[in-house]
Amino acid sequence: MTHDDAIVGVVTTPHRVIYADTDAMGIVYYGNYLRFFEVGRNEYFRACGASYELVERGGYHLVVIDVRARYRAPARYDDLILIETSLAVLGAARLRFHYHVRRAADSGLLVSGATEHACVKAATGRPVRLPPVILQHVRPRKDP
Predict the structure, then answer these.
(1) Which residues pair with 99 in a beta bridge?
(2) What angle do CA 20, 23, 28 make, to 5 degrees?
(3) Which phi and psi angles does 133 have, rounded to 5°?
(4) Domains in the chain and their CATH numbers?
(5) Which of 44, 108, 129, 133 has its CA 20 to 30 A from that of 122?
């Protein structure tokens, strides 16, 4: 796969809200949106022809160094939600993903957010430049 082939725009992942996703108020617990971000990120890698497991086999981890979430509306049990994920920034040693979580029924925006990840060598935990195992598969979205 060449760099140009690896450009992926927005990857949309459906998820049906289950009881375990909700809190005592019957809405999705705010911390679970970070899980949804992770689901979206994993599916983004798959859409690029890679997987996080491939990164780990290469001896690297992508550690979360920043998380942002803006909650706009609640999701409830049995709602079908759509997790939209895009790669916004690809730095020398960092990646930043953007997310929009929407209710499928009306496309209403529930949460928008971002995660930033630093690449570290698994054996040492020390920051390193993004290796070819990542760079050959992902590129940030190019807007027309």
Answers:
(1) 85, 113
(2) 75
(3) -60, -25
(4) 4-135 (3.10.129.10)
(5) 44
One-letter amino acid at 92 equals A
**What token pair was written down for 42?**
């994993």
- Report which DSSP code applies to 8: -
59 alpha carbon, distance to own chain's centre = 20
**Full-model pTM:** 0.88
**Over its length of 144 residues, how does the chain's per-residue pLDDT go in tens digits?**
233 333 568 999 999 999 999 999 999 999 999 999 999 999 999 998 888 898 999 999 999 999 999 999 999 999 999 999 999 998 999 999 999 999 999 999 999 999 999 999 999 999 999 998 888 887 655 544
Active site residues: 23
